Amino acid sequence: MKLFKMNVITLSIMAVSGSAMGADFGVGNANLSSVNQSKYECKRCGDSNGYQGSISVSVGYNDISDIHAGNALGTAEDGAIGAVSGDVRYQGESGYRGQLQAHQLGMDNGFLSLSAGKADLYELTFDYSNLKTYQAGNVQSQLWHNNGMLTPSVSVNQFDLALEREKIGLGFDYGRDFYRASVRFSQVGKTGHQSSSIVTPSPVNFGLPVDATTRQWDAGLALKGDNWITELSYMGSFYENNINHLSLPHLNDVFTASPDNQAHQVSLAGQYQLNRTVMSGRLVTGRMIQDDDLIQMSGNPLQSWDGQVDTLDGRLAFTSMLTNRLRLGGSVDYSKRDNKSSVAEFAQYNFNSVTGAFRQNTPRDYEGNTYKVNASYRIASGYRIQAGYDRKEVERSFSEREQTNDDSLWMKFNVRAFDNFNINLKAEHANRGGSEYEANALTSSEQNALMRKYYLADRKRNAVELSVNHSPVHWMSLDINTCYAKDDYDKTQIGLTESEDYGYEVSVSLQLNKHVNAYGFAGQQRINSTQAGSQSFSKADWYGDIEDDFTNIGAGLNYGGLMQNKLMLGLDYLFSSSVSDTYVTTGVTRPYGDYYSYSHSASVYADYAVNALMALKLSYRYERYYDTDAAVTDINSIPGLVTLGDINHDYNAHQVMLSFSYKLR
Predict the structure, then answer these.
(1) Most exposed: 54, 235, 271, 297, by fewest CB within 10 Å?
(2) Domain assignment of residue 298, yes or no
(3) CB 216, CB 655: distance < 8 Å
(4) Which has the closest alpha carbon to 333: 319, 318, 313?
């Protein structure tokens, strides 16, 4: 929680200003004793006290055949819809002020924010938001959920795969010249259904009910001086799952529920400026606790897990302007996770039989250090070069590879010397190494000794990025961004062996005349990866190639100044697609199954100013969405497998909305 915020520009000004910051040359401190201020009074400025802003009421109609359209249209309600939005501010003569912001209240996705208080003294806030995401509607399942019991049924149960998050928050801030204190409480309720599966003894997919609450407390105290700032804060989070373990009529506790848990964190942060050097630091200590009852079964010696993980994080950073051309910076980060959870002897299983051996669970610890140094040098006016070196050292206990070291060397080159041109080029080379990889030391014998997990394996990475901003004429702006990266896991025989990621983005903005604006953009990203596997539990005998392609294209136009500057017309269009193809080679290459989706989204609107205070807006929105996933099948199309049915999408959705807005002044 940041009570006093400083952006990068502010810090840069502080760093180059030196001792001049000791004197205040602000306009507010100018000597006006000999100036006749009445000659410079604003004759056209209005009184800012009172209410300002606008409110709007919208009514409309949805034509929706698939609830997935609610992700784009704001609500999955089919038929009449309505919403209220607004931004209203109040300023009193004695410094009292308030603000109300609302967006699409009454629809599935909206928020409300209220604040009131006295300037530079205190402020009360209230927040409410609702977010609902849709995966599929009318999903079929042969398991009914009723008070913790999953009941098989001959008839098919239908429900929606959707999750709703409702959040409320209360906050209070109080502060004077050199200090500020705050406290905040928030609660998030999460309800709905998500897909899950059990084996009874054949695999069965079902809709897992979701009903959970997360409560969070935040508090902080910040102090500041002429060239320093410090903050002490606390965060406490409490998660409660209202769905218990699930059972079948003939078998109890076949599905374990997410356990209740809590997390606490205390942090101390500060920043200090010494001439042209800015130093900052942070120290954070925390504890995560989980102590729910475990499902009791043969060979389980524990009644409850008694889980505890202690955390410690720290950061020290500095940036310094050595000369008007050269700036140096660096940072050191430390992170530690100390797992103090229960340790006990558990019976070992070999496929479906008990071996008779016992083995302790191994609570894994984590400790990491990250070191960064960088330099920025202005070669000449409009030319700047930056370079840096980053190193990350991680140690994991009871892991296949206990130590990994990631080293990265990067360089940036910026050119602003040419009129209407801004060019940025970045190149990076990274390498990961570490201790000896011991595949069988702490894993089951079913794992191939040649397999390497991608986040632990040796890796070489080369990447380059280029961005260009150009304004060839005063009414046109062009942005081009492109990037390429390749990861080579050259020592991996089984696992991910190579990954290639490249793409581009092009956008153009046009001011065709004083009444007509237009824009357009196009972007594409492609990710190709290769992995090797073994069916014979030895060296690689099959290979997989995965090709992911993402495309976005959009354009828009608005035309104002019509009907004596009262009417504005607009059009927006967006196309997006996602394609994922997988090919498997075992002597011959064949497709393994793919995923494909696309959507066309368009909106047309007309804004009409009835008078200086009132306006009407008529809009029409359209979405065409289609996807197909080779992994999705009908409920009983594969013998021995019960699915949730065909939840792919293929629909057209329409929305018409009329809005009335009123401006306060």
Answers:
(1) 297
(2) yes
(3) no
(4) 313
- Looking at the DSSP assignment, which residues form a beta bridge with residue 625? 599, 651
The residues that bridge with 662 in the sheet, in sequence order, are 55, 614
In this prediction, residue 155 carries a pLDDT of 64
Residue 232's nearest CA partner among 271, 267, 184 is 267
* Residue 242 lies inside a defined structural domain of this protein: no
What six digits make up the tokens of 196?
């899950």
Number of domains present in the structure of the chain: 1
**Dihedral sign of CA atoms 131, 137, 139, 144 in order:** positive
Q: Which two tokens stand for residue 226?
A: 């002429």
Residue 348 lies in a domain: yes
Number of CB atoms found within 10 A of residue 225's CB: 9
Backbone angles phi, psi at 36, to 5 degrees: -80, 95
CB 210, CB 178: distance < 8 Å? no
State percent of the chain over pLDDT 90: 67
Contact of 396 with 402, CB cutoff 8 Å = yes
What is the model's pLDDT at position 37? 47
Give residue 355's domain range. Answer: 261-395
Q: Is residue 322 part of a domain?
A: yes
Predicted confidence (pLDDT) per residue in 240-279, tens digit: 999 888 888 887 888 888 899 999 999 999 999 999 999 9
DSSP string, 18-66: GGGGGS---GGG---TTS-GGGG--SSPPP--EEEEEEEEEEEEEE-SS
Structure token digits, residue 14: 């502080």
Write the pLDDT tens digit of every residue in 480-514.
Answer: 999 999 999 999 999 999 999 999 999 999 999 99
pTM as predicted: 0.84
Per the prediction, the chain carries an average pLDDT of 88
